[in-house]
């Protein structure tokens, strides 16, 4: 038995109450054994709490194996094109399949993001746990008011639909798909309404070029559409800091350009939560960032061939 919050317990036991919640954990001799309790014995196994996947797109489960590209910008375009062929029924079906699959492999809670709301509905239907972040997407500054209004109405509708069963959050998708105006508007609204907030940041070299040098495929795509590029920044992290997005209530997804996190250590006193792509952590490395006016160093170590 490995509670994770404490050292492993040899010959451990766990008592599950009638509601399915953990009531007791400890050495088998010290855990209660009610008369009406079913006993399940396992050997040569480790029992531990369910995993939390802090970044899922379960509405896109059906696209697995169907979208490929030689570079990240091209892959993003193809995902967007493939999504256009999926209706709400298809998104919900995919989210249900994806959610059940996460459970089979030991993940019991998710932080999911999408545009359809399907994962929130899937969590309610199957009795799952998690947070669903509804995405705001538009690089056109002139569309900020319209897109923000639509997303705010959709979030309100989802909150009323799912009630307290699932937390509903907001996500301005990424620097290359969201205007600075929409970023700031969504961030301000989420904080004023105390809504969970998340965003993709520092995902690729193309994003770094876009924000730091106004170059690369994302910059080219904006210019082709006649969209003014954002003012350059020292890094994607510094760009979000400039827009006021960084803070203890922001979950930062992907963040694979991890060396740029040192900019955050030097320029920010926030405690932004970070989600890293596991392949970047295969050998373990330190990452530092500012937290409550002090620097914190954390080392992660993952197995190179661990499947996630």
- H/E topology pattern: EEEHHEHEHEHEHHHEHEEE
Q: Report helical residue fraction.
A: 25-40%
Chain-averaged pLDDT: 84
- How far is the first residue's CA from the last residue's CA? 22 Å
What characterizes the major β-sheet? 4 strands, parallel
Number of DSSP-assigned strands: 11
Strand order of the largest sheet: 3-4-5-6
Tally of contiguous helical segments: 9
Structural class: alpha/beta
Given the C-alpha coordinates, what overall shape results?
A: elongated
What is the radius of gyration?
21 Å
Flag low-confidence runs. 262-269, 277-308
Proportion in β-strands: 15-25%
List keywords for this structure.
alpha/beta; three-stranded parallel sheet; 11 strands; disordered C terminus
Would you kindly provide a brief summary of this structure?
The protein is an alpha/beta fold.
Write structural notes for this entry.
With 308 residues, the protein is of the alpha/beta class. Helices cover 33% and strands 21% of the residues. The protein has nine helices and eleven strands. The chain has helices spanning 72-83, 88-104, 118-126, 144-162, 180-192, 205-213, 216-224, 236-242, 261-267; strands at 12-16, 22-27, 51-56, 107-114, 129-136, 167-172, 197-201, 250-254, 273-274, 285-291, 294-300. The strands form four sheets. The protein has a four-stranded parallel beta sheet. Strands 7-8-9 form a three-stranded parallel beta sheet. A hairpin with a 2-residue loop joins strand 10 and strand 11. Helix 4 runs parallel beside helix 5 (180-192) and helix 6 (205-213) crosses helix 7. Residues 262-269 and 277-308 have low confidence and may be disordered.
């Amino acid at each position: 038995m490995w509670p994770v919050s404490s050292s492993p317990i040899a010959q451990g036991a766990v008592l599950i109450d009638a509601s399915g919640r953990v009531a007791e954990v400890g050495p088998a001799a010290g855990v209660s054994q009610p008369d009406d309790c079913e006993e399940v014995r396992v050997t040569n196994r480790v029992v531990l709490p369910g995993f939390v996947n802090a970044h899922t797109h379960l509405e896109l489960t059906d696209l697995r194996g169907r979208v490929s590209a030689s570079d990240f910008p091209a892959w993003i375009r193809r995902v967007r094109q493939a999504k256009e062929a999926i209706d709400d029924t298809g998104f919900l079906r995919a989210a249900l399949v994806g959610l059940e699959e996460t459970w089979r492999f030991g993940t019991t809670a998710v932080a999911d993001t999408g545009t359809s709301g399907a994962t929130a509905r899937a969590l309610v239907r199957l009795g799952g746990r998690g947070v669903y972040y509804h995405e705001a997407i538009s690089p056109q500054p002139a569309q900020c008011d319209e897109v923000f209004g639509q997303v705010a109405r959709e979030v309100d509708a989802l909150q009323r639909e799912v009630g307290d069963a699932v937390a509903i959050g907001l996500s301005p998708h990424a620097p290359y798909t969201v205007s600075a105006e929409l970023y700031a508007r969504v961030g301000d609204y989420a904080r004023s309404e105390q809504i969970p907030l998340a965003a993709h940041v520092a995902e690729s070299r193309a994003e770094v070029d876009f924000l730091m040098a106004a170059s690369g495929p994302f910059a080219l795509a904006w210019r082709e559409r006649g969209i003014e590029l954002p003012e350059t920044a020292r890094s994607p992290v510094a760009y979000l800091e400039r827009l006021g997005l960084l803070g203890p209530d922001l979950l930062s997804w992907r963040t694979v350009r991890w060396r740029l996190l040192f900019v955050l250590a030097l320029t920010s006193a926030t405690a932004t939560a970070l989600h890293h792509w596991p392949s970047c952590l295969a050998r373990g490395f330190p990452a530092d960032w500012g937290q409550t006016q002090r620097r914190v160093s954390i080392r992660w170590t993952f197995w190179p061939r661990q499947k996630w």
